[in-house]
Amino acid sequence: MGIIEKIKEIEAEMARTQKNKATEYHLGQLKAKIAKLRTQLLEPPKGSSGAGEGFEVTKFGHGRVALIGFPSVGKSTLLTMLTGTHSEAASYEFTTLTCIPGIIHYNDTKIQLLDLPGIIEGASEGKGRGRQVIAVSKSSDIVLMVLDASKSEGHRQILTKELEAVGLRLNKTPPQIYFKKKKTGGISFNSTLALTHVDEKLCYQILHEYKIHNAEVLFREDATVDDLIDVIEGNRKYMKCIYVYNKIDVVGIDDVDRLSRQPNSIVISCNLKLNLDRLLAKMWEAMGLVRIYTKPQGQQPDFAEPVVLSAGRGGCTVEDFCNHIHRTLVKEVKYVLVWGTSARHYPQHCGLSQVLQDEDVVQIVKKKEKDDGGRGRFKSHSNAPARICDREKKAPLKT
User: Fold this and answer.
1) Which of 134, 242, 261, 288 has an alpha carbon within 20 to 30 A of 300's alpha carbon?
2) 75 backbone dihedrals φ, ψ, rounded to 5°
């Protein structure tokens, strides 16, 4: 029996099992088994060498955005309108067969937009090049899930389920659970608040399913069984996702109003070029990019090319800003002057731990090199050796 058949068999058993207090331990063990099998499904087969079949796209720009959706929802048209890169669009499905990159120039930054082939139900199991598509989306900063406004809401649930099956958690934060394996000592289970979804017995059973018998577990929030499994697996990625509803020109105004009021959602029309500017603004807000302008000493700030930072790519502190310029600059910094919304007054003397905000101006003051104690006859000490016997003897005078 293959891995996919095992997963389907466990899912059928979970569907048959009634959900009550007596079966929650059994359901927790089944969820742990499914998570282990899906992790094995994503691993490359044993004995294989070299890189697998996928999309080779070099990272470029200050951020990366992936377009994910069913076939024929307008992903290629959206890429062409936002970036100017031509991506073939036609009235039949699976027009795009490979990954097509484009560059969005927005707010003095360059954002890479990837048009991926459409995925179908069962993509997490490898149907329709689904694994390659999802692997590229894992390397992006945010995901734009393009949906057809004229079709049912079930498409959104299907895509979310396929992405969660391969370890992507959309619009979620990592659970506040501390987990650490130990060599001895058994399992230590603690919590800082009352738990309603997980108890000590259920935690022990899930850990034993993973063959972990010595570990330390601390719950800092009322997490669920799925959150505990995600922490044990350790390969989950938490990303922001924007749900883009295209083709709003073929539905009624009531449906457009209902879709636009959903969280993390925006409605557009590529055919009539409606609301594309709001889509770029929402994308910028979700990526959290921070533009920092540099100011040389005694000169005006350079507003032409900002240094772009983000919390997902290194951080937004002064130390991260220095490392972005050169990794040896941190050791030479004496203090930093900051103008902008992150400063309390202009300019503010800051250290390396100061968190910068968008459109701040930064001037770095470096440490001065220590002199040798004066110049010429004002030197405090000579460069000659301390002992007289070590000094170079002058040649005798010729007579």
Assistant:
1) 288
2) -70, -45
pLDDT digit string, tens, across residues 75-118: 888 888 888 877 766 555 556 667 888 899 998 899 999 888 77
Residues found in the chain: 399
Residues 6+ apart with CB under 8 A from 268: 78, 244, 245, 246, 248, 274, 275, 276, 278, 279
| Per-residue pLDDT reduced to its tens digit, 255-300 | 999 999 999 999 999 888 899 999 999 999 999 999 999 999 889 9
Structure tokens at 24: 């929650």
What's residue 44's pLDDT? 60
| Spatial contact of 223 and 176, defined as CB atoms under 8 Å apart | yes
Q: Are 338 and 348 in contact (CB under 8 A)?
A: yes
How far is the C-alpha of 361 from the C-alpha of 303, rounded, in Å?
Answer: 9
CB 223 within 8 A of CB 175: yes
Q: What type of residue is 170?
A: L
Q: Which two tokens mark 165?
A: 């099956």
The first and second tokens of residue 25, run together, are 């331990």
Amino acid code (one letter) for 183: K
Neighbours of 139 (CB within 10 A): 13
Handedness of CA 58, 61, 65, 67 (dihedral sign): negative
- Calculate the alpha carbon distances from 251 to 174, 267, 297, 337 in Å: 37, 11, 58, 53
245 neighbors 149 (Cβ within 8 angstroms): yes
C-alpha span between 210 and 49 (Å, rounded): 28
Q: Could you give the CA distance from residue 385 to residue 324 in angstroms, rounded to a whole number?
A: 43
* Exposure string for 40-62, b = 16+ CB within 10 A, e = fewer: ebeeeeeeeeeeeeebebeeebb
